[in-house]
Specification:
- It contains 20 helices and 41 strands.
- It is α+β, with helices and mostly antiparallel strands.
- The strands form 9 sheets. The chain has an 8-stranded antiparallel β-sheet with strand order 18-19-20-21-32-27-26-23, with no helix packed on it. Strands 1-7-4-5-6-3-2 form a 7-stranded antiparallel β-sheet, with helices on one face. A 6-stranded antiparallel β-sheet has the order 15-22-31-28-25-24, with no helix packed on it.
- Strand 10 and strand 11 form a beta hairpin.
- Helix 2 packs parallel to helix 5, helix 6 packs across helix 18 and helix 13 packs parallel to helix 16.
Length: about 900
């Protein structure tokens, strides 16, 4: 504790007070405060040696005696987190009595209890009023038929309806009655229920509850925390009534949410655990909720999935509603009492990896919110929640999981990100308490400058690679995993690139889960940067989120199948619901339906300081009703810019696609989406408003801050189709625009089709070059020259060290000999698709390089060799493993 005090004093000296004052002013109101700001104590030896005051309830959620003592010290020293919280607490708006304000007010009251009892009492009373505004219970004056008479009804009728309360439950009875009407003195329940006279007696308590799961989930969290933190302020009868209310609200969902791949199930898990934990001291029935949440739901349903398919921690992220489930799971873990049980929860793969997934999902550029600048989140699935709200959920999870798992992978990088000025921000004042409560302001963490630059979440098939961690760097996101939940899209193999904003963006808007726009465009492959194989005989979309529909109901976008396998005649042979019922449980378990859900996988990954490599196999996704592809694989290589010996090297994202079609008359297209109309270096023939065609090898797109060049490395120019503007969201001869006010953020699409390729095999190589500014020119590029039909790649002619990228194609990697030409002078080489762990001999003759099995360099676990050749070695046969002394080629 003494060491932490000294460190904290040093931090306070280094922190600029204007920053703290600015944060406090931003968070608060410009009007007068209703209560005086607590006096700022001066540092004295007595303060430094203060004794921890007794803590009445040592079973507080998210808080223990040591942490409360630290928080009281932080308040004395006026930390920025405390200043923002107390300014918010003292704002006149807190007089409005909102249940969401309860935890923040209660925490501030506990912190001030010893130093400023008067202010503490005022804040505690406000917190209790917020608590009783959320946990609504009263007592029966009389009951008969459908009517409850309560002459002292403490709520206005419109408040009940607006608040979402639509159920009434008698105390002690497992009966839920739906409210039909409410007045100032009575409640009427719907017809058809029991006579209330048999259920309720004079003076008996009853509860008002919510049937909307997600509103209830938020309210139970707020109520449970406020209750635990204000319990000493309450009368024993109130404690019992609130504990009973929490249990009753949890029991509303006792039979719901019995899966592990959906938001509802995570919400119920959290509700049961929090309601039970908060009521343990005041309700004899609360222990049953805690036991059911842990044993029946977590061990029986959630744990197998989190352990077997949660590797990488990327479930429940992005900007779809499932992002809420990540917070609910973290709160469930916090509600499990410390000890062996919590240890088992946190040992699950998803929990252990979650911090890495969160920090890697953050965009490089910053946006502006009420609380200040923040990093947004890479979108995935339906965009149900705003970018700022998604970022706030990320920060909340980072704070809590960093607190629960301080030794987890990337926990120190998360700590550094939380302290940075452009981290994900708290945009809602009622969440300010989490920053004060959970942020460790002493530990600087591990600087993001040395954090890993790529990340693979194997279970979800999501990968990230970036050039650095500053707002000026590039982020590349690659999605190639299973379809495990309804909000996901049919987007296996899709790529997104961000630099100064989206450069290569996903298209489509969210105007509902099953609108014409969603089911024909936004949720389909055509709206993502992946591959399209159009087969006019195909119909693989019988069920697009709203039940099975006749053939032809949905557009044929040439994309990936929905949730079904098909027989030889194109009929659904085996179908699955869009979300699995559980890992091994329920009517549609993941384990039984795995061939349908596992539409794609990332099968190889490797990285070095200058590159990241991912191999995505999405063959299964294209095996729809016409089984149009026998192989569909995308190799992604991210070549990072600069470097210690070549500062001018350009950044590049190389996409190598290999497809084996079912029939030679089919074609494959690479699809790319942009926020602004791209410029194509060719004459384009207008076919209709918003649609044009031509042939080209290069195009350029901009987001206003950066530019993206896309170049084709084919023998011949590709066929280019440009769609957008009046033809926004065009699919199969028809436009499917979103319903206003939703608007497509990337309304321009380019489809590139290789020309001059015959038979069923298609090879495509595209290089994407993100460059800062608007006038930067791309480096010179050339196609890889090789006699090997199963080899594809390119040469980037950097000024000092030209880079060669070569990818061996074709199914499982085998130990084969390959060769290709390379440029004069120095050169760097990255060769992928090799047999992992196999040793290869590398020889050169003139400008021809040969890689063959033999003694030399060993391919990585991802099947990659990365090495460089120094000058003076090109005119004789050499082995890279025995280089000259002046500048050795090395396996990077």
């Amino acid at each position: 504790m003494v060491i932490r005090k000294a460190a904290y004093l040093l931090i306070l000296v280094l922190w600029a007070m204007p920053i703290a004052l600015s944060q406090a002013q931003t968070a608060g109101s410009s009007g007068p405060l209703p209560m005086p700001t607590p006096p700022r104590a001066q540092p004295t030896q007595d303060t430094a040696k203060s004794v921890q005051p007794p803590l009445g309830d040592v079973d507080l959620i998210l808080l223990d005696q040591d942490r409360l003592f630290e928080l009281r010290e932080y308040a004395i020293w006026d930390s920025p987190q405390w200043r923002r919280l107390i300014t918010w607490c003292l704002d006149p708006a807190r007089q409005n009595i909102d249940p969401a304000d309860g935890p923040g007010l209660a925490l501030a009251a506990m912190v001030l209890k010893q130093r400023d009892p008067a202010t503490s009492q005022r804040l505690a009373r406000l917190a209790v009023r917020c608590l009783l505004e959320g946990a609504r219970f009263s007592r029966v004056e009389s009951a008969e038929g459908r009517t409850i008479i309560d002459g002292g009804l403490p709520w206005k009728p419109d408040e009940v309806i607006k608040g979402g309360y639509d159920l009434v439950a008698p105390f002690g009875a497992n009966t839920l009655l739906r409210i039909d009407k409410i007045t100032t003195t009575k409640l009427l329940v719907e017809k058809g229920g029991p006579d209330l006279k048999t259920l309720m007696k004079r003076g008996q308590a009853y509860h008002l509850l919510m049937s909307d799961l997600h509103r209830a989930s938020v309210l139970v969290e707020q109520t449970a925390l406020t209750f635990k933190w204000t319990r000493d302020m309450l009368h024993p009868d109130e404690r019992r009534d609130i504990a009973d209310w929490l249990r009753a609200q949890a029991m509303v969902f006792a039979e719901d949410g019995r899966g592990c791949f959906d938001t509802d199930s995570a919400a119920v898990l959290k509700i049961m655990s929090l309601a039970g934990r908060a009521g343990l001291k005041d309700s004899p029935l609360a222990a049953g909720l805690v036991e059911a949440a842990y044993t029946e739901r977590f061990l029986g349903i959630w744990h197998p999935a989190l352990e077997n398919t949660g590797q990488g921690g990327a479930w429940f992220g992005g900007t779809y509603a499932g992002a809420m489930a990540g917070w609910d799971l973290a709160m469930f873990a916090a509600a499990v009492p410390p000890g062996d049980r919590r240890g088992k929860v946190l040992a699950s793969a998803w929990f252990n990896d979650r911090q890495g997934a969160l920090v890697n999902s953050l965009l490089p550029e910053t946006a502006q919110a009420l609380g200040g600048p923040y990093r947004g989140v890479c979108p995935s699935g339906d965009n149900v929640i705003s970018s700022s709200k998604a970022a706030e959920l990320v920060r909340m999870q980072m704070l809590l999981l960093r607190n629960l798992l301080p030794e987890a992978p990337m926990a120190q990088e998360v700590q550094a990100m939380l302290l940075s000025s452009d981290a994900p921000a708290m945009t809602q004042g009622h969440h300010y308490y989490l920053d004060f409560l959970l942020l460790d302001i002493i530990n600087p963490g591990k600087a993001m400058a040395v954090a890993p630059l790529d990340y693979l979440a194997q279970g979800a098939g999501r990968a990230f690679s970036r050039s650095g961690w500053t707002p000026w760097d590039t982020l590349v996101a690659f999605n190639c995993g299973p379809h495990f939940a309804m909000p996901q899209h049919l987007d296996a193999g899709s790529v997104q690139i961000f630099n100064g904003g989206p450069l290569l963006a996903r298209s489509g808007a969210y105007d509902g889960p099953a609108t014409e726009h969603a089911t024909n465009y936004a949720a389909r492959s055509i709206a993502h940067n992946t591959l399209i194989i159009f087969d006019p005989t195909e119909y693989s979309w019988y069920d697009m989120r709203d039940g099975q529909k006749p053939r032809g109901t949905y557009a044929n976008d040439g994309g990936q199948r929905a949730w079904a396998y098909f027989d030889e005649k194109g009929r659904p042979l085996n179908q699955a619901p869009w979300t699995a019922s559980g890992y091994k449980t329920g009517p549609a378990p993941w384990a039984d339906l795995m061939p349908i859900y596992e539409a794609a996988n990332i099968t190889a990954h490797d990285s070095g300081s200058r590159f990241a490599y991912f191999r995505g196999d999405m063959t299964s996704a294209y095996r729809g009703s016409s089984a149009k592809a026998k192989l569909a694989v995308r190799h992604l290589i991210h070549l990072r810019p600069g470097g210690p010996d070549d500062a001018t090297a350009a950044e590049a994202v190389v996409l190598v696609d290999e497809v084996i079609l079912a029939r030679p008359e089919l074609d494959v297209k690479a699809v790319f989406h942009f926020a602004m109309r791209p410029f194509i270096e060719s004459e384009m023939q207008t076919e209709a408003p918003g649609r044009a065609k031509g042939q080209a090898s290069r195009l350029r797109a901009s987001n206003g801050k950066s530019v993206l060049w896309i170049a084709s490395m084919q023998d011949q120019p590709e066929e280019v189709t440009l769609i957008g503007g009046p033809a926004d969201d065009w699919v199969d001869g028809k436009a499917y625009p979103p319903q206003p006010p939703a608007k497509d953020p990337a309304p321009w699409r380019v489809e590139l089709t290789p020309t001059g390729q015959e038979g069923v095999t298609r090879k495509m190589v595209h290089v994407l070059l993100p460059l800062p500014g608007q006038n930067e020119s791309p480096p010179t590029l050339s196609r890889l020259h090789t006699a090997n039909a199963n080899l594809a790649g390119l040469v980037i002619h950097d000024r000092q060290w030209p880079r060669v990228v070569a990818v061996r194609l074709g199914g499982e990697a085998e130990a084969q000999t390959i060769s290709y030409e390379y440029p004069d002078g120095r050169s760097r080489h990255l060769v992928a698709g090799l047999a992992p762990g196999v040793e290869y001999s590398i020889t050169t003759a003139g400008q021809k390089l040969t890689i063959s099995p033999g003694k030399g360099l060993t391919a990585s676990a991802g099947g990659v060799l990365a090495f460089k050749l120094a000058p003076g070695e090109e005119n004789k046969d050499i082995q890279v493993k025995t280089p000259p002394a002046q500048e050795p080629p090395a396996n990077e």
